[in-house]
Design brief:
With 147 residues, the chain is mainly alpha-helical. The chain has 2 domains: 89 residues, no CATH class; 53 residues, no CATH class. The strands form 2 sheets. It has a 3-stranded parallel sheet with strand order 1-2-3. Strands 4-5 form a two-stranded parallel sheet. Helix 7 links the parallel strand 4 and strand 5.
């Protein structure tokens, strides 16, 4: 069974703390339980799903609480985004955002928003944050009140 084979009632939503226990092993019993769940998903025994907010929280916690470097955060978050047996809507946008987050020194949320905008064929953004959004190719910044 893959997540795409499952109906909504068959899928199990995975919260941030399950991923964090697995990624950090800071509570070994919980890390082991999370790993067992992920192995079952990879084997097709259970369908898992999560969302962009969970990935954003993973990035924030690994960066702020665990003080990991951006490349380390990116590596771990990408491991979640590409986990076998896990459905993650917008995984292509999330992947791009994680790469830009690590390579361009921008906040993950800004990188996600830039990717979301581009994937929808939009080219302009209304923002007061010229510093970060000017780092994204193909986006025209429109400062509110400057039109």
């Amino acid at each position: 069974m893959t997540p795409s084979d499952c109906t909504g009632s068959d899928l199990l939503f995975v919260d941030t703390n399950v991923f964090l226990r697995f990624l950090t092993n800071d509570v070994p019993e919980q890390a082991d339980a999370a790993e067992a769940l992920f192995r079952r998903a990879a084997a097709g025994e259970v369908g898992l799903v999560t969302n962009t907010i969970v990935v954003a929280e993973i990035v924030w916690v690994l960066e702020s609480y665990y003080r990991l470097t951006r490349p380390d955060v990116m590596e771990r978050a990408l491991a979640v985004a590409h986990m076998d047996g896990l459905a993650l809507p917008e995984s292509d946008i999330i992947t791009e955002a994680l790469l830009e987050y690590a390579e361009s020194n921008v906040d993950f949320i800004d990188a996600y928003n830039a990717g979301w905008i581009r994937h929808r064929g939009l080219r302009r953004i209304a923002t007061f944050d010229q510093k970060h959004y000017s780092r994204f190719e193909g986006l025209a910044i429109q400062m509110p009140g400057a039109d």
